[in-house]
Protein 1
Amino acid sequence: MSKISLQCRECKKEYESTFKYICDECFGPLDVKYDFSPVSKNAFDGREHTYWRYFELLPIQQKSNIVSIHAGMTPLIRAEKLGKELGLNNLYIKNDSVNPTFSFKDRPAGVAVSKAKEFGLSAVGCASTGNLASATAAHAAKGGFPCYVFAPSDIEHAKIAQALAYGSKFIAVDGTYDDANRIAAQIGDSKGIGIVNINMRSYYVEGSKTLAYEVAEQLGWQVPDQLIVPVGSGAMLNAICKGFEELQTVSLLNDVSRMRMIAAQPHGCAPVVDAFKRGDTEVIPVENPDTIAKSLAIGDPGDGRYVLKRLKQYNGYAEESNNKEILDAILLLAKTEGVFTEPAGGVSVAVLKKMVEDGKIDKNDTTVCYVTGNGLKATESIMEVLQKPQTMKADVAKISAVVQ
Ligand SMILES: Cc1ncc(COP(=O)(O)O)c(C=O)c1O
Ligand SMILES: [Zn+2]
C-alpha cells in the first residue's frame, strides 16, 4: 500500500489526502502523489481484468471501499485494416467504448465514487457533457449513493436515458457545459456532495491514468511512439501522461520522455488546438461550442493550459477535425475494424488521418489512437450520413432481386 498525499500542481505545496482539491496558497489544482516502491513486470499476472488490477497505483487505501462495475482492461486492437487504409504499419486502437457504461468515463468516475465512499460522503454527482453522467450514475447505483447530474439540456437522448435508468437525479441545464459546471461546483461545495469531476477531481483523474497503464501492459511494457487523445477538459490527456510517468517511476517503463502526445479536438470547440497553433500557453475559451462531438463541447477546458504544457513536454501536436471529417472517420473505423464510435472517437481517427495525409506521422511508428465512447450513444448525428434502410414487403422474390 502506497502512502498518498495531495500536491499542488503549481507551487508544489503538499497536503494530507482529504476531501480537498484546490491549493490554499495559490488556488492551483491538487494532484495525488504516491510514495511508490518499484513494481515487477509480472506483478499483475493473473489479476482481475479491470483497471482495479493496478490497485497499489490508485488512490484508494482500503480495498473494501472499491466500487466496481468491472470497467477497464478494454481491447488494444492491432488495427491492420485501418492502418492499411491510412498507410500505417503499426496502428493500434484502444477501444474504450466497450466499458460497462460505454465510455472511458467509467475509469475516473469509478475511482472518484470509491474515494467518496472512503471519505464517508453521503451523495455524489457530476457536471457532464453526457458520458460522465452515466458513468457516475452507474457507480453511484452500485455504491448505494444518491447521484446528481448537471448537464446541458441538448446532449444526446441515449446519454440522458442511460443516466436516468441508473437512478440519477438529472438536471438538464438550459445552457452550455460551462454553465452546468459552474452550478455543479457551487451546489457541490455548499451541500458537501462529492462532485466527481470538480471537488473530487484530484482523485477522479487518477482513474484515467489507467488508460496509460493498460496500453503499456498490453504492448508488453513498452511506450508507444505516439498517442492520439481526444480533448474536452483535457483531464484525460494530462492523466495519461501522468500514468506513463508513474510507470517509469516504479521501473515498469523507461524512456517515457520520447513518446509524442497529440491532442484532438472538434472544429467548433477547439480552444486547445487554437492556443497550440497560436503558440500560446493559455487557452481562450470558446463561448458557444458548436460541434456534433457534444462530449468534447467544453468551451473553457479546466486542464487546457496543462495540456499545452504536456504537448510541449512530449514533442506534441494538436489538430482539429470538422463535422464531416468526424462522420467520415466514424464510418471508416466501423467499416475497417468493426468498431462503432461516437463523434469523440471520430475526432481522434479524423485527426490521425489528417496528420498522416500531412506527412506528420511516420508510417512505422507505433501509434495508439484512443477511441473513448460508443456510437450507440450518438445515433442521431450519425444517422444523418447513413443510407436509410430499404423497407420492402416480405416477399422473397422481390427481396432476392435486390441482394447482390
Ligand atoms: C467520449 C469522450 N471522449 C473524450 C472526452 C474528453 O475527456 P476530457 O474532458 O478528460 O478531456 C470526453 C469527455 O467527456 C468523452 O466523453
Ligand atoms: Zn499552490
Protein 2
Amino acid sequence: MTRSGRAIVLGGSWAGMLAAHVLARHLEAVTVVERDVLPRGPEHRRGLPQARHVHVLWSGGARIVEELLPGTAERLLAAGARRIGFHEDLVTLTSHGWQHRFPPRQYAIMCGRPLLDWIVRDRILADERITLREGTEAVELAGGAKRVTGVHVRGARDGARELLEADLVVDATGRGSRLKHWLAALGLPPLAEDVVDAGIAYATRTFRAPDGATAGFPAINVAADHRVRRPGRFGVVYPQEGGRWMVTLSCTRGGELPTRDEDFLPYARTLRDPIVADLVAGAEPLTPVFASHIGANRRLYPERAATWPDGLVVLGDSLAAFNPIYGHGMSAAARAARVLDERLAEPFGPGAARAAQERISAAADDPWIMATSKDIEFVHCRNHAEDPRLNGGAAVMRGFADMVATMAIRSADVSDAVTDVMSMTVPQSELGTARFMSLMQGARLLPELGEPPLRRHELALVNLDRRAVAGVRSVPR
Ligand SMILES: Cc1cc2nc3c(=O)[nH]c(=O)nc-3n(C[C@H](O)[C@H](O)[C@H](O)COP(=O)(O)OP(=O)(O)OC[C@H]3O[C@@H](n4cnc5c(N)ncnc54)[C@H](O)[C@@H]3O)c2cc1C
C-alpha cells in the first residue's frame, strides 16, 4: 500500500534508480535528480566513467534485482549478457594458485555496464510515479540540522536554480558525493570516515573475440599475490554482448599501468600467468586503452553521528565505495535498496530516516571488510581507517583468510562456502561458524593445478594449444 509523501533521489545511476524503484512502491511520487542527460539506450555517459571498465554483477546482487524487477536477468541474457557459473565458467589464478572448476553454485552476470544500467533504468522509469529531472544538478540540501526538507538544484545548461521539496531525500550521487559539505552547510559536525587506498588503477581495452568465444570460452581472471611484497598486477578477459571481450588490466600503487595502446600487451605479459596476453595477442582491438585511477575504499559512518536529520538517507557509493576488483559495489547498492524497501514498509515517522540509515550502513559492512582486509596487505596501501579490524586484528584475520583461500581452490565444499560469501549471498560471518570449521576439517583436497584448467575444445576456439591440460573435466563433488 502506498502512502502520501514525496521523495527525491539525487543521482540517477545504479543505486539511485534502485532506490527510486523501492521508494515508488511506498510513496506517492519520486523525483530522480540526475546531472547527466541519460542516454536512451545502452550508451556511455560522462557521469559514469567507470562504465568503460569491466563490471560484473554477483548473484547476491542479481537476485535482489530480480526480486525487485522480475525478468531483468532474462532481458540481460537476451541482449547478450552472459551468466558465468562460479567456478565452472571462470578460469582463475587466485593469489593462492589455480582454482579448480567446480560445478557452479553461484554466478555473476557479465556484460557492459551501459547495458546493465539501461535494462534496469528503462524498466524503472516506466513507473509513472517516478519523474526524472535529468540535466539537473543537486547543489545543496534544504532544511536544517534536525530535518532535511528538500534540495536546491541547478539546471546543468542554463544554471537556473530551484528548490525541490520532499519528505525524504536520498543521496546516491556516487563517489563524488558532496554530502559532507552539504551536512556542514546545515550546521552538522563532520561525519566519521575511513579510507583504505591500495592505489588501484584500471586500464581497459575492448576486443573482438574469436567466433563463438564469448559463449563457449570461460571468463579469465589472473589475480596478484598480496603475499609478495611487490605492487599487485591483475588482468581479466570477460565476455560482453556483441561478441566482444573486455580486457581490464589493473594494479595496486606502484604497478605502473599502461595508458598507451602499444603498452597494453607487454603489460599483460607481466602478469603471473601469460594467458591474458595470449588471448589479447590473437584478438582484434576495437577501442583504445581507457585508464582510470578511482579505486580507493571509502566509507562514511552516518550511523555514528550524534544528530542525523530526519528526511535524509545516503546509500550506494556515496555511503561506501569499494576497491572495484572485488566487484561488490552494485550488489551492495542492491542490498541497500532492499533494506530501504523493508524499512519503508514500516511506519516512517520522526527518527525513521536514522533507523533506515543504520540498517543501510550495516548492510555495507561485509563488502567493506572483504575489500579492505585484503587491500591492506598490498605494499604501499594507505590505511586511514579507524576500523579496529583493519589495525590490531588484521594479521590474525589474514592468516585465517589465507588458509581458507588455499583450501577453496582445491575443495568443492570450501569453494562453495567462500563463493556464497564473495557473491554476497550469505554474510561473511558464515566463515567463522562451527559449521564452516567442520567443513574445512573434513574437506577433500584435489591436487594443485600447475596450469589454467582449460579444455581442449576451449583452447581450439581461441587458437591456443600449448596449454592443453589432458583430461581436465568438470570435477565432480
Ligand atoms: C573501475 C570500476 C570498476 C567497477 N567494477 C564493478 C564491478 O565489477 N561490479 C560491481 O558491482 N561494481 C563495480 N564497480 C562499482 C560500481 O561502479 C559502483 O558501485 C556503482 O556504480 C555505484 O552506483 P551509484 O549509483 O552509487 O554511483 P554512480 O554509479 O557513480 O552514480 C552516481 C550518479 O550521480 C550523478 N551525480 C553526481 N553528482 C550529482 C549531483 N550533484 N546532482 C545530480 N546528479 C549527480 C552522476 O552523474 C551519476 O549518474 C566498479 C567501479 C569502478 C570505479
Protein 3
Amino acid sequence: MADVSRKEFFDRIDGTPQKRMFLSIMADYDLPTAICELVDNAIDHWMSTGKPSGTIIRLFLDTERQLIAVRDNAGGVPVDQLRLLIAPGATRPLDAENLIGNFGVGGKRASVALGEHVVISSRNKQRDSFQIEITRDWLADEDWKIDVNQIPNIDPNTTNVRISEVRQNFTQTDLDDLYQHLEATYAVFIQQGCELHLNGRPVGVTVYDNWAFPPDYSPKQMAFEIRPSDSDSRSLKVKVTGGLIRDRIPEADNYGVYFYCNGRLILRELKTREVGYFITAEAGVPHPDGSLCRVIVELDGPAELMPWNSSKNGISFSHPAFLQVRPSIIELVTYFSELSRRFKGDRQGHVYQHDAGTVEPMSPTPSTTKKRLVLPPVKRDPKLSYSQRMLQLN
Ligand SMILES: Nc1ncnc2c1ncn2[C@@H]1O[C@H](COP(=O)(O)OP(=O)(O)OP(=O)(O)O)[C@@H](O)[C@H]1O
Ligand SMILES: [Mg+2]
C-alpha cells in the first residue's frame, strides 16, 4: 500500500470558504440578537473615537413593509476599509480598547440573517459616500468580490444598513420586546451619552443595581483581576456584586445572575448550576423565596479575553475567564439566596424599606481552576501606530 503520508501525494488545496458558511453562521439569530450586532458596531466606533457627543444610533423597523434600517453617525467607514463590512473574520485594526467587537463576523452574519437583501452605505467624515449590496445572487455565487458603488452623498460620518426581504416577519410585540432589550443591553452607553432611538423614540435605560441595604446585610462586592490566558499577559478587571434587591417583579423572575462585558449586558436572570443554583443547598432550586438575590458580574478588558459567545447573547461556561470568576459568583448567590429566604415573611420591613447605604467590599473567593485560555496565533490586521490612529481620528 502506498505511503499516503508522503508529501508528494498532496497538492496544496484551496481553503477559500464557500458562501454557504453564511447559512451556518447565521443559524441561531433572533431579532434582538441580530439587531444588537449592528448596534454593537456603531457603539464600538463611538467608543474608539472618544465617545463624541451628538452620536445617535437610529433603528427603524417598519412592521407594515417589513423593512429594517440601522443608521449611525458614529464616523462612517473609510472606503479602503469597506471590506471589513463583508469579509467574514475581518475586524478593525485597533485592538487596544475595551470594545465589543472581536470575532469579525457579527455585522455580516446578522444582516444576512435578518434579510435577503442588504444595502450598506457609508460616508467617512466629509468624504465621498459609498455603497455595497449583499444580494441573493452574491450569496449564491462563489465569487467573494463585491461591487463598491459611489453614491450621492449621505450625511457625513454616517453608516446606514438597510435590510429588506426579511427572513422572519416581525410584529409590534416584537418591537416592544426589542425596545426593552435595548434599554437593558445598552444602559451603560446610553448613560454615557450615546443616543439610541427605535422608530424615533429614544431608548431609556434599565439598570439592575437596585440594591436594598438591610442593617448588617448590605450588598457585597468582590473586585479583582484575572489573567485567563497563558499566551496573553493582559488581564480582565472583574467586579462581582451581590445583594438583595428592591425591584422584585414576581411574574418577571428578575433575579439571579447578570453578566456585563465591557459595559454591554450579555446575559441576565441566569439561574443554573453554573452559577450555584441546584448545587448548593442554600441557593437550591430557583424559587420565589430566593427571588431577592441578584448578582451582577462586570468584566472589563480586551475583547479577546471575554467569555462571551460569538453572538454576545450568552456566556461560555467552560471559558477560563468564567471558571476563574465562578467561585465568587457562587458564594454570593448562595449567601443572598439564603438571606432572601430568611426575609420572605416581611420583605417590606426587612428589605425594601432599606433603600440607602453602601456596598461592602469583600475578598474574592479563591479559584482552583487550572484551566487557561489558549489564544490561537491568528493574524489580526496590523495595529496602527499612534500617529496613524490620530490621523484616522482627526
Ligand atoms: N457602523 C459602523 N461604523 C464603523 N465601523 C463599522 C461599523 N460597522 C462595522 N464596522 C467595521 O466593520 C468591522 C467588522 O464588523 P463585524 O461586526 O463584522 O465584526 P467585529 O465587530 O469586528 O466583531 P464581532 O464579530 O465580534 O462583532 C468592525 O470591526 C468595524 O471596524
Ligand atoms: Mg461587531
Protein 4
Amino acid sequence: MPVDPVCGIEMDESLAVSYDYEDKKYFFCCNGCRRIFKKKPKKWAKKA
Ligand SMILES: [Zn+2]
C-alpha cells in the first residue's frame, strides 16, 4: 500500500490522491497533503 510522505499514513491506492514528481508517482491521503508536497517536493520526496 502506498504511504503518504507528508503525514505518514498508509492508504488504499484507490482512495489516494496521486501526484507525479520527477518520474515518480506519490500518493497522498488528501488534497491538503498533496498541496504541502507541491510546495516543497524536494523535502518530502526524500522521505518517501
Ligand atoms: Zn496525508
